[in-house]
Design brief:
Elements (H helix, E strand, L loop, with lengths): L2 H20 L6 H6 L6 H10 L6 E5 L5 H8 L3 E6 L2 H13 L5 E4 L5 H4 L5 E7 L9 H11 E12 L1 H4 L26 E4 L14 E4 L4 H9 L4 E8 L11 E2 L5 E2 L11 E7 L3
Parallel strand pairs: 1-2, 1-4, 2-3, 4-5
Antiparallel strand pairs: 5-11, 6-7, 8-11, 9-10
Helix pairs in contact: 1-5, 7-9
This protein binds S-adenosylmethionine.
The site of S-adenosylmethionine (SAM) has 18 residues, from α1.
Length: about 280
């Protein structure tokens, strides 16, 4: 198989995840619609790194059905979200209308974003958890980020750490807490293939069960940005995740998942990175 076939498999899978993710027990789109004050928990965390977004043009790459994108709109940003899933984009437009929160959503493959939004650039380019692992080529991703930023603009990403993606998952033995490095930390051309008929949230049963993912090391991610002239001004590693990435992880009062105390300092689970395009 080639990259195009991997992408089509992933797209079919992501289209099917949308309905389940919408549910009250998942991302809770009905709750977002009902409460005009609600900001997604992801953006609640990330807003400290982007500061004031009021009036800024913000592009959200791989926006899924737009709850994070529209959370930035509720904080005053003029938002555009892109995603390659037609179902996700349709749901995002619906969420925007139903919640009366303005936003523009465009269906496009990530690497085709500069073509799909020809001539446009943004003050902020934003990406959040569970995005880069779907992309085969991190250097090409860096070109997209740089192309979409205004001179003087800011890029911010919070993502699962490549060390997390290199750990064995799932661990079949529920009593075994060993963290085992099993998959490549660095980017390799052949993806990891997975088979599952459920998503990480929601009750939807998935028919297109096969997905393909790629890991990218931290230095590769940084080089993808700096090689395009972006200046990294913040990098932090986090001991939490937004979901249960390993079976022994426990959910804390803040709704985030952490390894048990005796393992908490062993590995980073996520990171925040911010970069600026010289003005
Ligand atoms: C886990 S979601 C991340 C979004 C956000 N963090 C969230 O939780 O709502 C990953 C998104 O990436 C999108 N995606 C995956 N591969 C893509 C590609 N090659 N081009 C554009 N979007 C892609 C999927 O459709 C999905 O909506």
């Amino acid at each position: 198989m080639g990259v195009a076939e991997y992408r089509e498999a992933n797209r079919a899978n992501w289209n099917e995840r949308v309905a389940g993710h919408w549910e009250p027990d998942a991302y809770d789109a009905p709750g977002f619609i009902a409460d005009p004050e609600r900001i997604s928990s992801v953006v609640q965390f990330d807003r400290q790194y982007l500061g004031e977004v009021d009036g800024r043009l913000l592009l959200h790459l791989q926006c899924h059905f737009g709850m994070d994108t529209l959370s930035w709109a509720r904080l005053g940003a003029d938002v555009t979200g892109i995603d390659f899933s037609a179902d996700a984009i349709a749901a995002a437009i619906n969420l925007s209308e139903e919640s009366r929160t303005p936003g523009r959503f465009v269906e496009t493959e990530l690497y085709d974003t500069p073509k799909a939004l020809a001539g446009e650039q943004f003050d902020v380019v934003y990406t959040s958890v569970g995005a880069l692992n779907w992309l085969p080529d991190i250097a090409g991703w860096g070109e997209v980020v740089a192309a979409m930023l205004n001179p003087g603009g800011t890029f911010y990403i919070r993502e699962a750490h490549p060390v997390l993606w290199s750990l064995r998952f799932p661990n079949e033995d529920p009593n075994d807490e060993t963290l085992i490095i099993e998959y490549p930390y660095f980017e390799v051309s052949e993806p990891l293939g997975w088979d599952t008929d459920v998503s990480y949230l929601g009750s939807a049963s998935i028919e297109h069960t096969r997905t393909y993912e790629w890991n990218h090391g931290i230095a590769e991610i940084m080089a993808a940005l700096t090689s395009q002239g972006l200046l990294i001004d913040l990098y932090q590693e986090h001991r939490f995740l937004d979901w249960q990435g390993q079976h022994q992880m426990v959910e804390d009062d803040d709704g985030r998942w952490r390894l048990p105390e005796h393992q908490r300092d062993l590995v980073p689970l996520a990171y925040s990175l911010r970069a600026r395009k010289p003005g």
